[in-house]
Specification:
With 301 residues, the chain is an alpha+beta fold. The protein folds into three domains: 2-88, Rossmann fold (3-Layer(aba) Sandwich), CATH 3.40.50.20; 96-112 and 182-283, D-amino Acid Aminotransferase, Chain A, domain 1, CATH 3.30.470.20; 117-179, 2-Layer Sandwich (Dna Ligase, domain 1). It has helices spanning 13-24, 70-82, 91-98, 100-109, 126-132, 157-169, 227-240, 268-274, 278-289, and strands spanning 2-6, 28-32, 37-40, 47-50, 53-54, 60-63, 86-87, 117-118, 138-142, 151-154, 174-178, 186-193, 196-204, 219-222, 244-250, 257-262. Helix 1 crosses helix 9 (278-289) and helix 2 (70-82) packs antiparallel against helix 3. It is globular, with a radius of gyration of 20 Å.
């Protein structure tokens, strides 16, 4: 098979891991920077070009799309969908998961457990917004933030007012979310492939930090999740429409709650922590499912 990885950096651990897994299985794997692609949007003959060369004969595309390039990269991915190429995660699903507000609304509609979350535009609603999530301490999240960036813990009501006013002055959209005390600075990363949790790890924040992201100094350990946590992770990925996803959960007195569904989850932390060949499992999934024209959205949406 000819497999294309849409990635801005071929040297990243995740990209290298996928290349190695594909080549080990005898596939031709090529890395293409989506921002260096251009498209011929022609009726019945859509095409994608990279470095002046038309991309042809591709059996599957693995999108590794960073949040900052979502708009253009998903447009490139959508072009491949229109060409009938199998995409591991489709453009609509990626866009859906990247919009934190839309993602939470969709998960809520399907009854998936979530932290209580508030959203408003007017600063006149700040007190009401804080009350909706149970008061301080509370978490304030930029809609555009990733990897823990743009996430602030406000320990008092006055601190929450200050952060909200600052974000408002920047014309930034944000969510206000309850602080789940029971989580104690820890969360679960569940890696979902094809409707199954194939690996999971517990991430614990370093001392003095409430965000458990590994690149922020958090520690990870392999963990066996409960059936309820497994079901929640799988449902969250399915609601987003993602075949491959990293689902972040926190434990609470009312069960597991979804923090985020990541459409391009990193492989390094989960592979090194659990010892599982996640990249190989992604390739196995592609081998079983990649068929020309097997696209749910067919470039729509």
């Amino acid at each position: 098979m000819k497999i294309l990885i849409l990635s801005r950096n071929s040297k990243l651990y995740s990209t290298q891991s996928l290349i190695a897994a594909g080549e080990k299985r005898g596939h031709e794997v090529e890395v293409v920077d989506p921002l260096l692609c251009y498209m011929d949007i022609t009726s019945k003959k859509p095409a994608v070009f990279f470095r002046k060369k038309r991309i042809e004969g591709v059996d599957a595309v693995i999108p590794r799309i960073g949040a900052s390039v979502t708009f253009y990269a998903t447009a490139v991915l959508r072009q491949f969908e229109m060409m009938g190429v199998y995409c591991v995660n489709e453009s609509v699903a990626i866009s859906r998961s990247r919009d934190k507000l839309r993602a939470l609304q969709l998960l809520s509609r399907k009854g998936v457990g979530l932290p209580t979350t508030g959203f408003a535009h007017s600063t006149q609603m700040t007190d009401d917004l804080i009350d909706v999530v149970g008061g301080a301490p509370l978490v304030i999240k930029l809609l555009e933030g990733t990897q823990g960036k743009g996430v602030v813990l406000a320990e008092t009501k006055s601190a929450a007012h200050s952060v909200i006013d600052a974000f408002r002055n920047l014309d930034a959209y944000f969510l206000v979310q309850e602080f789940v005390r029971e989580a104690s600075g820890a969360d679960l990363r569940c890696f979902v492939i094809g409707g199954k949790v194939v690996a999971s790890m517990k991430r614990t924040a370093k001392s003095g930090e409430f965000r458990s992201n590994l690149h922020l100094g958090g520690k990870a350990e392999k963990v066996k999740i409960t059936p309820e946590e497994r079901e929640t992770a799988v449902r969250a990925a399915q609601v987003m429409g993602l075949n491959v996803a990293g689902v972040d959960l926190v434990s609470s007195s009312r069960g597991p709650l979804v923090l985020e569904v990541n459409s391009s989850p990193g492989l390094e932390g989960i592979e090194k922590t659990t010892g599982r060949d996640i990249a190989g499992l992604v390739m196995d999934f592609i081998e079983k499912n990649a068929k020309h024209g097997k696209t749910k959205t067919k470039g729509k949406g």
